[in-house]
Amino acid sequence: MELTTEQTNILVEIFQDFLKTNDKLYQHSEVQNGFIETILRKANQGTFHLSKDELIFLAHFTSDFISEFARRYNAYNLKFWINITEEVFREMIKKDLLIDILSKSNIDYLKDIFHHNLAFRSSNVLGVIQKLKECNTVLLSSITDPYKIGFVYQFDEILVLEFKHSFDIADQLFYKFTNYHDVKNSFFGELTRQDAYKVISKCDLEKYPSDNIDFLLYVLQ
Fold first, then answer.
1. In whole angstroms, what is the distance from residue 140 CA to residue 190 CA?
2. Which pLDDT tens digit goes with each residue over 99-131?
3. What DSSP character marks residue 47?
4. Residue 122 near residue 73, CB atoms below 8 Å
5. Strands, E, within the chain: which ranges?
6. What is the rounded distance in angstroms from the CA atom of residue 210 to the CA atom of residue 23?
7. Spatial separation of the C-alpha atoms in residues 207 and 203, rounded to whole Å
């Protein structure tokens, strides 16, 4: 693969930060430092091809990066996706880049080594959340303690959440429909996002996972 100048700069930042924060642990590891130096040299050459050993090293490095990211920012629940800070957003870009490099390399080398989803990108989840916030039409299963909500995007796509049970927003996608009338009839009624906010804000919290209500109010505000 070929890295852009911006991607190369991000990769340099990733490893420089790593070496600064882990200097006591890794300053005597010539093998690891050698891998990092080689990867950065190749990144600056434009065309970016890693050997099997270099790719395996990067896979382990990326796994550790993802685990540390989740631990540091408590990225295990819906509340994590509310009000992403600049710091977290920057770390997301780094994480996505590392996964992107692995996904475009020889993935046969990654079997039994890298156990994270190579298709997952934080930027895609943020894109879905942004579309939720842009939906002006909302469908609800009822106006009293609803169990299902549909976010209609430009009367062309919809994302449906059954929110009386916990859900992972990273697994949710908009899908296109051909007949809005049929979609609408599968719900109780059609509301503006402002009216939907009022309904959700009055839900009995004992009947829902609290993160679900907080998240819905966030995207509807």
1. 7
2. 999 998 888 888 888 999 999 999 999 999 999
3. B
4. no
5. 137-140, 148-153, 157-162, 175-176, 189-192
6. 41
7. 8
Q: Which residues pair with 189 in a beta bridge?
A: 140
pTM of the entire predicted model: 0.86
Q: At what angle do helices 86-103 and 5-21 cross, to 10 degrees?
A: 110
Query: By C-alpha distance, which of 185, 217, 182 is closest to 203?
Result: 217
27 falls in which pLDDT band (50, 70, 90)? Answer: low
Question: How far is 93 from 121, CA to CA, in rounded Å?
Answer: 9
- Residue carrying structure tokens 């949710």: 172
Strands (E), 129-198: 137-140, 148-153, 157-162, 175-176, 189-192
29 band by pLDDT with thresholds 50, 70 and 90: low
Helix count and strand count (H, E) for the chain:
9, 5
Dihedral, CA of residue 217, residue 82, residue 6 and residue 36, to nearest 10: -150
Neighbours of 213 (CB within 10 A): 18
Contact 106, 58 (CB under 8 A): no
For the chain, the first-to-last Cα distance in angstroms comes to 41
- Whose tokens are 């809005």? That residue is 180
